[in-house]
UniProtKB/TrEMBL annotation:
Classification via InterPro entries: DUF3611
Organism name: Thermocoleostomius sinensis A174
Name listed for the protein in its UniProt record: DUF3611 family protein
Keyword Metal-binding attached: no
Residues that span the membrane, as ranges: 29-51, 71-92, 119-141, 170-193
Keywords: Membrane, Transmembrane, Transmembrane helix
């Protein structure tokens, strides 16, 4: 841990950037981690219930209804969630970078270019994760639209799986949480880039 007397000897711009990295890094880390855990629990719950509802319990020989928790929607949602945990780890790295910037030894202190490169990698992680979450959201929404058109036939076919269920909406909520977390990571990283470039 660095003494207050050592941090006073730091240049004001370095102190400002280190403070911004520390505060924003911790805030981004915790928000992304909490939203990621909530999304993971919801997706695990939805995934564990998919196998039990894959076929119509009233008519086991009928084909399974399209479920937003299966196929491309679930694949993209899970990939976006994995990307979110990588983004949370990267936000934690911002706090480590802040600690390195506060060192009194200017020789071992990271350069401005190193900080910018770390932030750019964080931007790419969040952008890719957000793209995956958006693709997952589109696939999930498409399957829900298809399911809503099939609801009229569900009355006549006796297949309750053609109705939109709370489980379907859980998958939508999990993907929305992941999208929000990646957006928060993007905003935090862009703000940090602005702080670093203002030196």
């Amino acid at each position: 841990m660095v003494n207050r007397s050592d941090s006073v000897s730091l240049p004001p711009a370095v102190r400002r950037v280190a403070g911004a990295l520390r505060i924003t890094g911790w805030a981004s880390f915790w928000v992304q981690l909490v939203l990621g855990i909530v999304s993971a629990v919801v997706l695990l719950f939805a995934g564990s219930n998919l196998g039990t509802t894959a076929r119509n319990p009233l008519n086991p020989t009928s084909p399974a209804a399209a479920n937003p928790g299966t196929g491309a929607g679930l694949l993209f949602a899970v990939l976006a969630l994995l990307g979110l945990f990588v983004a949370a780890y990267w936000a934690f790295r911002y706090t480590r970078l802040a600690r390195q910037l506060r060192t009194p030894n200017a020789q071992v202190r990271p350069r401005r270019g190193d900080a910018v490169q770390t932030l750019r990698i964080g931007l790419v992680i969040n952008l890719v994760g957000m793209l995956l979450a958006i693709l997952g959201g589109q696939a999930i929404a498409g399957s829900l639209v298809l399911k809503s058109f099939e609801q009229g036939f569900a009355i006549f076919s006796g297949n309750p799986l053609r109705f939109i269920t709370p489980l379907d909406l859980f998958v939508v909520q999990a993907n929305a949480n992941t999208t929000l977390a990646h957006f928060i990571g993007l905003v935090a990283t862009l703000w940090l880039l602005r702080s670093v470039n203002r030196q």
